[in-house]
Structure formats: structure tokens, C-alpha cells
Amino acid sequence: MSLRVYNSLTRRVEPFEPLDEGRVRIYTCGPTVYDRAHIGNFRTFLWEDLLRRYLKWKGYDVTQVMNLTDVDDRTITAAIERAITLDEVTAAPIEWFFEDWDRLGLEPVEHNPRATDHVDGMIELVRRLESAGLTYENEGSVYFPIAKFEDYGRLAGIDPETLGSAGRASGDEEYEKDDPRDFVLWKGGERSGESDVAVWDSPWGRGRPGWHLECSAMAMEYLGETLDIHTGGVDNMFPHHTNEVAQSEGATGKPFARYWLHAAHLLVEGQKMSKSLGNFFTVPDVIDRGHRPSTMRYLMLSGHYRAQLNFTFDGLDAAARSVERLRDFRERVRGAAESEGPRSGDLSDAAARAASAFEAAMDDDLNVSEALAAIFGLVRQGNQLMDAATPAVPDGTDSVLSVFTDFDAVFGVLALRDREGDAVDDDLAAWVEQMIAERRAARAERDFARADEIRNELLARDVVLEDTAEGTRWKIREGVAPATAE
């Protein structure tokens, strides 16, 4: 089976074929590090992590670059207002970002370049555009004339003749341009306070690079002049990615990226996330409400990347139950695999069907809904087969565990949940085991009233029991701090 993806450039689902067989080069627009990233940002980063993991699972050698935008209007303004350096502004947000990145179980990418470390490459890119006749200067700044680039706007499906103000086109309306639709490559001239925190020498005088220029220069430095995949949020398609295409292809004469993949927005409780609405959350905000990172990861990966995802706290509760269901089933199969009892039935066919359906779904533009349906179908069939085999256990447990290994290599949910643990102290664990033993004895004596009392007493301490053919298992209910034994 081969992977097919929706290419924003062509507006259709098409087979994925990298430039070099077996190798994939990905560029990801990273965070602007002026504040802590929010869950909307991480919805995009998590989907990109899923893509990366799936490509690796398919056998590709992946090289991914995700930049850190440490120089832009927001970081500069913060430095000026606080009378500190740009590095001092960005140090904490960068640390927070990678803390949350690790909390959510994202894989490290190969390169995380900072814009401020690559200004020389940005200047060289402007010089190449200058040689190609695709720049002009005005009052110390250098601009890209979009009228001279024939395919401008193709990525976003925009006719450049319909573009209006510079604000809509590029966010640099304070600059003097020949055409208000043009965008700035190099920001020169006198701007109050900026020379104290962010200024570099250039052939056009002292100044700093434009935002769009940064990504093109860093992408091509690490990945070459033609990338396999460029990813980002749909809000970056215009003007940012549109301008990246123009300046990159204008300089090289080559396609900048073969495939453009964009993620849709995250909603929170059905609304656009906003501090004024009180629905603006960071990763620590959600954790502080009692939710595990693995639950957040599952929820934000459970919807297709091209569809808006509604992040709700009811949805988080449902996601927690889904993660625990997967984890409980995996542990049940592990227990069956280790059992030395009699055998009856076989899980191999169900595992093979699930594996095939999972890959087919993921190959279909990362259709996570169908992929998860395949895995939960295996959970349902597997439980039914094991229930029917009781007290014996079925063959084929290794096949099921292999499917779960492959599933989690892509989704990364169970490994993260295992890493979180259950945070149960030894005294509580000993007390729970004692209560389970008393309940077992009560049931053996057919004292079901006492057995129910014990279950309810455990539940009051947020301890949930599950009776299986392999014995009674227990866990702490999601979203609560474990009580201690009295």
C-alpha cells in the first residue's frame, strides 16, 4: 500500500512520492517564541508528529526541520518594553515550549534552527532575488514585487489582482512600497528602539529580515532547494506560505515544496480560542484541571487534520476512557500471552484484519477515524474471543500485541500513558490488594453484598476494579489525585 495525501498546492489527494526514494525532507513552521504556546498551536504540532511517525513506520528516512521564530515584531516589542535583550525575551518561552512538547510525547525533530542564527543565509537569499530582478529598495528596505512572479497566490488559490491593502497581503503596512500588495524582504531604515535589540548589517544598510524570508532561508539551508513536504496551520497558507513560495522559487527557479499539508483550526467548546472568552488554554492549564497529557494527545489526534477539531472537557473525559480501554485490553492480552493455561480459539485473523485496515486508513491521507476504528474493532473482537475462551486463553496473542506496537509507534499514546504511570503510593497499593483479597473471599462464600460493599468502598477512593479471566485488575480513576490508605 502507498500513502496518499491532500496537497494544498494541487487541491487534490495524490500519491506521495518523495524526491529521493526512501528519504523524506519536511519543513514545519515552528512557534514564535514570545510567550507560551497554546493548545491550538499544539494541535498542529501533534498532527505533524503523527505524519512524521507514520512516514518512519512506513520505512522512510525522515529529516524534519522546525524553526524557532525568535525575531519578529512581538519578540522585539517585548524586548523594548522590558528593556532586555532578545535572547532574554525568548529564553523562557523556548524552554516552556520544549517542556510541553515532551509532556505531549512529541518526537524531537532533527533540526530546530533559530532565525537569529541564520541571518547571513537570509541576506544571501535576498541577493539572489536581487540578481534575478525580483527586488526593489525604498528607504533602506528591500521588497518583493509580486507582479513580477507569475504564479503568485497559486498555493492559496488567490488572484493577485484581487489583493487589497498591504496589511492583508503581508502585515508590513508601515513600509513604503511601490505596490501595496508587495511584501518586505529586508526591513531597513530607522525604527524607534529596534536598533537596540535586533539589527544586522547588510548590503542595503542596517536592518532585519522579514518574517517570510526567515523560513525560506532556513528550510533550504537544511533541506535543499526543493523540499518533499512543507507543513503548517491553514492560517499560514496566506500570506506566509504564499510568500515563501514566491521568494524561494524566484531565487532558485525550482519548485520549493512538492507537497503542502495544512491543518485546520482548533476550536474550544465550539468557539475560537480567545482570552476574552475565557477559553484560552496552555498545556499546563489543562493538566492543572486533572487531565493527563496522554489524554490531550489522544483527543487532538482523534480528528482528521484537515477538519476543525472541537476541544471540549467532555471530550477529554471520553478520550481518557478510550486510552484506558486500549491500555486495559493490551494488558489483558499480555496476561493471556503469559498464561500457561489451556488454549482455545485464535486471535490471529482478527489481528491481521485490524493491521490491514489500520494501514489502509492511514494511507488514505491519514484517516485517523478509520484507523482508530480498526484498532477498537480489534479490542471488541479480542475481548469477545477471550471471554468465549474463558477459562482457557486463545492463541494469537503475539499478533495482537504486534498490532498494538505498530499502532503506538504511530499514535504514541500508550507509551506516553505508560510513562505517566499511576502515581500510587505503596501503602495505598497494599490496602487495595488487601481489599481485593477480602472481596475475592466474600465472593467465594457467595456473600455478594459484602463484595459489592468492598467495590463501592474502593470506588469511593477512586479505585476502579475490572474482573477478567486472568484475575481482578485495578486502577486509579482518570483526572484525580490518588487518595492514601487510612
Description:
There is one protein chain. Helix content is 47%, strand content 16%. The chain has 486 residues and is of the alpha/beta class. Helix 4 crosses helix 6 (211-223) and helix 10 runs antiparallel to helix 13. It is elongated, with a radius of gyration of 27 Å.
Q: Any key phrases for this structure?
A:
elongated; Isoleucyl-tRNA Synthetase, Domain 1; 486 residues; four-stranded parallel β-sheet; alpha/beta; disordered C terminus; 17 strands; Rossmann fold; single chain; four-stranded antiparallel β-sheet; 3 domains; 16% strand
In what range is the share of β-strand residues? 15-25%
Radius of gyration: 27 Å
What general form does the structure show? elongated
> Under the CATH scheme, which class of the largest domain?
Alpha Beta
CATH topology of the largest domain: Rossmann fold
Architecture per CATH nomenclature, i.e. the level-2 architecture of the largest domain: 3-Layer(aba) Sandwich
Estimated structural class = alpha/beta
Amount of helix = 40-55%
Brief overview:
The protein folds into three domains: 21-263, HUPs (Rossmann fold); 283-420, Isoleucyl-tRNA Synthetase, Domain 1; 426-476, no CATH class. The protein is built from 16 helices and 17 strands. It has helices spanning 39-57, 73-82, 86-103, 119-131, 166-169, 211-223, 237-252, 283-288, 293-301, 313-338, 348-363, 368-389, 397-411, 413-420, 426-444, 448-460; strands at residues 4-7, 12-15, 23-28, 61-66, 136-138, 141-144, 183-188, 207-209, 227-233, 257-263, 266-268, 271-272, 309-311, 343-346, 393-395, 463-468, 471-476.
